[in-house]
Predict the 3D structure of the following.
Amino acid sequence: MGRSRLARFLPRRLLARFAGHALGRMAPDSAIPWHRVLRSDGRIAFPPGSPGFETQRERLMDEGVIVRNGRVSMRRYRVSDAGASA
């Protein structure tokens, strides 16, 4: 069963928790673009002013993403389910 099909059977809160745990256990030198993961409302999950917050904000802005008050427009930047791989 593909990832997107499996995700349809799991509650959204469990998916978010699973993603958070997986990202928290990554190696510091991982090539996974963790900085693209935001809260469902577009906010950066790190506390404002923290090193993680600043790093994530800078990486997003380096990619041309507009970050205002620690938030990204999910309407503008969200990847739809149609764009996800199965």
